[in-house]
Amino acid sequence: MASLLRLLSFLRRLSLDIRHSRLRIAVIAIGGVASGLAATGMIALINSLIGRPGSSGPARIWAFAALCAVLPACRFVSQVLLVDLSQSSLLALRLRLSRRVLSAPLRQLEQVGASRLLATLTTDIGTIADSTAMVPILLMHVTLVVSSLVYLGWLDTRLLLEVAVVILGGALSYRLAAGKASLFFQRSRQWMDEVFGQIRSMVEGTKELKMHRGRREAFLQSVEHSTKAQMKDYRAGQIAFSVASSWGQVLLFMLIGFLILVLPRFQPVDGKVLVAYTIVLFQMMTPLEVLLTSLPALSRATVAIRTVEDLGFSLDAEAPAPDLAPAATQGTWDLLELDGVAHSYRQENDESFLLGPVDLTFRPGELVFMIGGNGSGKTTLAKILIGLYTPEAGEIRFAGEAITDHNRESYRERFSVVFSDFFLFENLLGLESAKLDQEALRYLERLRLDRKVRVEQGRFSTLDLSQGQRKRLALLTAYLEDRSIYVFDEWAADQDPTFKQVFYLELLPELRRRGKTVFVISHDDHYFHVADRVVKLNYGQVEYDRSVTEHKGLMISQPFT
């Protein structure tokens, strides 16, 4: 019952995103309750007809016919409305979570992990959607059981109290088994995060797994371990519920035996009342069985709801205030300042890494190389610079205005970025233009991809390319965005020597001539001379910020620095 109430409460809160859903939920609930009351009325009518043979007058015949019509009508209406509501709820839930994911701070998403996000957006939402389809039937059977007990109390209150003592004892023993099953389902759901992570690793690391038998076997063993653990907990939960369900049926038979065999030995019981109790209890067996067999699904839905809500709360815990500033990809500006900016996080070895404090100033039209060893903080600094990480100390000022949660979104709109771990969309999303295909073709020719890729109605004809060619398509997307500041994180690492030379000696200077500010994270020291400035990081600190001329002089005097 608690699981059903939690599912209804979740649907009610979710219904805020769905037009007219409150009315539909009310009609669904009324339809389910009405079906249960009609079923109880039918039991009471049949019992009265059996108790008084030959008393079926016109009124009772009409009542019987009306109940025959009300039962299927209420059930049909509530189920049809629920199909529509469950699909609308599924859409609203997926969109709500997607919005939360996209609005949450990047660092927070990295801590949640891709596997958990995937499991929630797929498995948990599907589990909730499947469970909502049972709501009308469950409401009908819950109402039937409750109204049947009320009817039995109307027949003989004392007898109902005696029966209630037996029912209460059975319910408590059933609750122990059901609670244990819920714990197993919760553990099974936690294993699903790891299973999804392994599926993701298998898809993305297929080539590496094929190339190394030992790695492949070890990976398969880890898949087997986590999958078996998930299945073991799921199976244990199902068995616990099966035991509880079987025990519930045994208790019902014991209750009927108590009424027929035991109770009449100790107190007088009216024979007609005893027959009515026996008939009603037998009629309650079917709805009780439906309720008992649906509990595993409701328990899984409860676990899924808890997981979804926990994810939502964790994503909302540090949710930024809405960005009220208008988006601006272009426009004049004079200074981009990092004033005492600092950021820390835990590394894989559980050691704390501190970047900063960093004090840097950049101007329009500058070509800046950011250099340093692996783990020196270059990418972290870039993520702070473009507004993906929020500084823990200090502030960023753009054109004299401090960047806060109120304008960070519009600040990010100033940047076009090609990350080292970039993702390439099949469509040029958000780049609506009447001449988009023609502009894309011009850049495809410039990037020497026009013989392999076409752009038709803003969609790439293929993404089946080498890593270097895919990075060129990512660069094409950045060109089409035409924003005032560009950031390239190890862009040339996957390019052949010829196109690497084109990138450094042609494309970057051209962006600078167009007034773009360009940040390049690179280890290609042969091309540092094209920069205006070189910023070197070392263990999270800015070791120096020099002009390219000063950097050359430093390299000559300290060749091994």
Task: Give a written overview of the molecule.
This protein has 561 residues and is of the alpha/beta class. The chain folds into two domains: 2-316, ABC transporter transmembrane region fold; 336-557, Rossmann fold, CATH 3.40.50.300. The chain is 63% helix and 12% strand. The protein contains 16 helices and twelve strands. The protein has helices spanning 2-14, 21-51, 58-103, 106-112, 114-132, 135-155, 157-204, 206-210, 213-266, 271-316, 378-385, 408-412, 436-446, 467-481, 497-513, 548-557, and strands at 336-346, 352-362, 367-371, 393-398, 401-402, 415-418, 455-456, 459-460, 485-489, 517-521, 533-538, 541-547. The strands form three sheets. A six-stranded mixed β-sheet has the order 6-9-10-3-11-12, with helices on both faces. The protein has a four-stranded antiparallel β-sheet with strand order 2-1-4-5, covered by helices on one side. Strands 7-8 form a two-stranded antiparallel ribbon. Strand 4 (393-398) and strand 5 form a beta hairpin. Helix 2 (21-51) runs parallel beside helix 6, helix 5 packs antiparallel against helix 7 and helix 6 (135-155) runs antiparallel to helix 10 (271-316). It is elongated, with a radius of gyration of 34 Å.
Mean pLDDT: 80
Q: Helical element count?
A: 16
The rough form would be described as elongated
- End-to-end CA span: 70 Å
CATH superfamily of the largest domain: ABC transporter type 1, transmembrane domain
Q: How many E strands?
A: 12
Q: How would you write the strand order of the largest sheet?
A: 6-9-10-3-11-12
Strand content: 5-15%
Instruction: Predict the CATH topology of the largest domain.
Output: ABC transporter transmembrane region fold
User: What is the CATH architecture term of the largest domain?
Assistant: Up-down Bundle
Main sheet overview: 6 strands, mixed
Q: Based on helices, strands and strand pairing, what is the structural class?
A: alpha/beta
Q: What Rg is obtained from the alpha carbons, in whole angstroms?
A: 34 Å
Helix content: 55-70%
